[in-house]
Amino acid sequence: MAMAIDDGETGQPWSEAEVEATVAVYLQMLRMQEMGQVPNKREHNRRLQALLPARNASSIEYKHRNISAVLNLFGVQALNGYKALPNFQHMLVDVVARAIEQDRMLDEVSLRSVETPAEPPLVEDFSNFVVQIPIPKIAVAEQRADWVRRAPVKRDYLEREARNRSLGLAGELLVLEYEQRRLHTGGAKTLANKIEHVSKDKGDGTGYDILSFDADGRERFIEVKTTAYAAETPFFISPNEVAFSDQEADRFHLYRLFGFRRKPQMFTVPGAVDANFLLDPVSFRATLLRART
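Structure (tokenized):
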């Protein structure tokens, strides 16, 4: 039986059987999440410990976070609460690929989830709406990304979500409301009245979605990317949007909305997109880069 390298938690290599059992439980919880249920992560972890006596709760959680990283690179949504930790081994890629290929229920509920229409939520208090940019602890190695690109995955659910025009519009409308409140609160009511929903009024070819302003009147070009999933979830961006962000780097802002269907929050990234994200050269899927030192 194949053995896996240690993930740095227990000091013991994982067997293929242990990895398969852990992936199976993770996907069970993911199916529940996509069906609108709330999986009991602690209880599932406890039951896995009974099946895997060599693994403690912390080691299993560490492996779950590795699985989230692999799923993100496959274009499959991850389980909420397990932030991606991409220092995974090749065997995990193979096990996850086989599991999602065979999981017809996950395929069905995932497609339904990412293609479900959305409405802009009512947010009464924006004080906790904007958060800091999440910093990946470990950069995604090009070799690991290549493993995933070569693996036979049936669908890219995150790309399907990116094509959900209802979700994208709902995110833009929420950002419009946020920007108006931001400028009103900052004493720039005249500027708030000048905000434009460019993607709606002029189409998607401008390179950004919303024209807003800084408090001093400087233009702010905003591109909005919305997901129902975690902050670190990769997103898709067009070559035109990337080129525009390079051209107007000092005025371009990417607004990343996440957790949209549960509790929407947002982080903002100013400047050129290719300076802050790892871009897949074929699809322009963007993944946050590790912080520079």
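DSSP finds eleven helices and ten strands in the chain. The chain has two domains: 3-115, 161-288.
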